[in-house]
Every structure is written in structure tokens, then in C-alpha cells.
Amino acid sequence: MASGSILVTGGAGYIGSHVVGQLGEAGEQVVVLDNLSTGFRSAVLHGELVIGETGDKELVDRIIREHDIDTILHFAAHTIVPESVENPLKYYGNNTCSSRNLLECADRAGIKHFIFSSTAAVYGIPESGAADENSATAPINPYGSSKLMTEWMLRDLSLATDMTHVALRYFNVAGSDPECRIGQSTPNATLLTKVACEAAVGIRDKVYIFGTDYDTPDGTGLRDYIHVDDLARAHLDALGYLRDGGESTTLNCGYGHGYSVRDVLAAVEKANGESLDIIESPRRAGDPPILIAVADRIQEVLGWQPQHDDLDFIVRTSLAWEKRLLDKPAD
Ligand code: UD1
């Protein structure tokens, strides 16, 4: 089946740029729309970059028309949970209202397929620590709510039109391009692997463990860390699935098992060959003790086959990127 071009919003960001790289390798025609608020021009390895806002309907209408777009991959979003609590309207504005504008343009143009970056944050604090796609959605912060509202808009638009979509709920994304061309470059990182690798290369002096008294084997939080390259591959699999006539669906993106904070820090120490200065500190508000994907469906539905389900590999690629950033900051 002949396919049109793909619009990737947020394609200069951490996850979007990895997907754009793989789309390029697959020979797809790509246009990236990014306002470069947290993305980087140099991260766009393929296709044309348009600098602008996802919520700018005139601009999006024009891009769709001029580039014969028939598919949208939507990554552009704010993603810092504590910031979403302090400034909820920023999150609803960008993650929900701008998504609504984008969907209006998609609807107007008769876009065939839409792939959406959703998050495990839609589950809040699942009782057993493991969430499948039918687990209750009960976000505990505006970030999760803003993403869930977009899932609902997508669901309703797909029901009302011929558009089909896949919403991918990411668990803890980590690592970077194994060839070290792109990675997570955002300043003021809060995510554990990035923070620990920054400490390993000397950008920070310490790493804090938020909570050592959880009811987990070593007392620290358990998460399902997924390599960004595998996550990116899931988007290409979702694209193939939708082009083959697959129906709209929502899928967890994780490996289905977890590592503790101490496991991650030990892996960083091993990869770097030096110990970290680790401070045990109180729990961080809003952190679930355990958040792990039940991840069977994505493999069944998309045929997704992860290649990097290996904490040491995840951490090695994160560390390599952090060292690369020291030599050459992202621009
Ligand atoms: C975060 C978001 C979550 C989002 C996910 C993926 C929060 C509260 N949650 O998940 O909504 O879906 O990213 O983008 O921001 N930790 C430390 N020290 C640190 C940093 C983290 O001990 O300096 C611990 C945390 O307590 C947690 C684990 O490491 O147990 C992972 O934390 P983090 O990397 O921030 O991700 P999440 O909070 O799981």
C-alpha cells in the first residue's frame, strides 16, 4: 500500500528523535515539527525540521497539505511531573489543548493513522505495582491527567471517524542511541538513570535515593526501565500495524520486570568503574513503590521484539551519551 509522509511532533526531543532516526533508516518521508523548547536541532537525524507549535492550527494544516502527510506521531509534550503539579495549566495547555488542536487538523485533513506518546503515569499508583492496559486509570498528577485526556480525545475521534490510532503508555524510558548520535540532553534532569550518569561524569556530586523503606526486596522503588531504542522500534511496529489495517488500541511499553534504585546505581558504578556518592534520603511525594508493566499485549499485537532488555546495556548507553555531552553539548 502506498503511504504518505509522516508528521512527527516533538521529533527533536529525546524519544521523538530516536523514532525519527529509525523512520529515516526505514526510508520513510518525515517532517518534524518542534518548538525546540526542550528539543535540539542536532537531534533531528532525518527529514525536514519545521520550528513551530503543535497547537498552531494554520501551521499544522499547511504542513499536512504541503507534505502530503497521512500519519502523525505525536511526542511534543511537557514531561516533568513535579513541574506539572506546580503549574498544571502549562501541562493542560500543551499536553491537552495543543493535542486537541492537532487532532482537529488531523480530522480536517482525513489523517489515516495517529500514534501517541502516552505514559504509565495514567495508572497512578496501581495496587499490585503491575499495570495492564485494563488496569484502572487514576493519575495522581496533572502530567498523567493531561496525557490521559488526550488518550480519551483520540479514542473518541477514532470512533467517530476512519482514523485509527495506537496510544503507547511508556514506562521508565532510559538509555540512548547505541551509536551515540543522540540521547537525553534536557537540562535539570530528574529521571534516575540520567541523574546517576550525570553524577558519574561529575556534573553532580551526589545521587539521592528517594526512599529506602519501601516494601520491596532492597527497600527502594522498583521500575520497568526500557531502552529508548526498543521503545522507538515499538512506534515503527505500531505504524506497520496500523497500515496493515490494525484497529485502534492502547499498549503498555515496558519489559514486564523491574529493577530497584540500588540496582540502577550499581549498574552505573559498574559501567563507570567508580563508586558514586549516594545519599539515602526520604521518599519523594507521589512515587509509587513499584510500577511495572504487564507487557504481553504489545508483543502479541504489534509483534514487538525488544533487543536491549538489559540494565547494563541501558546504563552503558546513557553513560556514553553523558560523556559525549561533556565533549560536545547538544545544540
Ligand atoms: C517518572 C514520572 C512518571 C513518568 C516517568 C516516565 C515522576 C514522579 N514520575 O517516573 O510519571 O511516567 O517518569 O517519564 O516524576 N529516584 C531516586 N533518586 C533520583 C531520581 C529518582 O531515588 O534522583 C527514584 C524514584 O524514587 C523512583 C525511581 O528512582 O523510585 C525512578 O524515578 P524517575 O526516574 O524519576 O522516574 P519515575 O518517577 O518512576
The H-and-E topology, N to C, reads as EHEEHEHHEEHEEHEEEHEEHEEHH
Shape: globular
Number of domains: 2
Main sheet? 7 strands, parallel
**Major sheet: order of its strands?**
3-2-1-4-5-7-12
CATH superfamily membership of the largest domain? NAD(P)-binding Rossmann-like Domain
Average pLDDT metric:
96
Portion in beta strands = 15-25%
Which architecture of the largest domain does the CATH hierarchy give at level 2?
Answer: 3-Layer(aba) Sandwich
Helix and strand arrangement:
Layout lengths: L4 E5 L4 H12 L4 E5 L13 E4 L5 H11 L1 E6 L6 H6 L1 H22 L3 E7 L10 E2 L10 H19 L3 E7 L1 E3 L17 H9 L6 E4 L11 E2 L1 E3 H16 L5 E5 L5 E2 H12 L5 E4 L8 E4 L2 H7 L8 H17 L4
Parallel strand pairs: 1-2, 1-4, 2-3, 4-5, 5-7, 6-15, 7-12, 8-11, 9-14, 10-15
Antiparallel strand pairs: 10-13
Helix pairs in contact: 1-7, 2-4, 4-5, 6-8, 6-10, 8-10
Uridine-diphosphate-N-acetylglucosamine binds next to helix 6 and strand 9.
Structure description:
The chain is an alpha/beta fold and 331 residues long. The protein has 2 domains: 200 residues, Rossmann fold, CATH 3.40.50; 91 residues, UDP-galactose 4-epimerase, domain 1 (Alpha-Beta Complex). The strands form 4 sheets. A 7-stranded parallel beta sheet has the order 3-2-1-4-5-7-12, with helices on both faces. A 4-stranded mixed beta sheet has the order 6-15-10-13. The longest helix is centred in the first third of the chain and has 22 residues. The protein starts with a strand and ends with a helix. The relative contact order is 0.15. Uridine-diphosphate-N-acetylglucosamine binds next to helix 6 and strand 9.
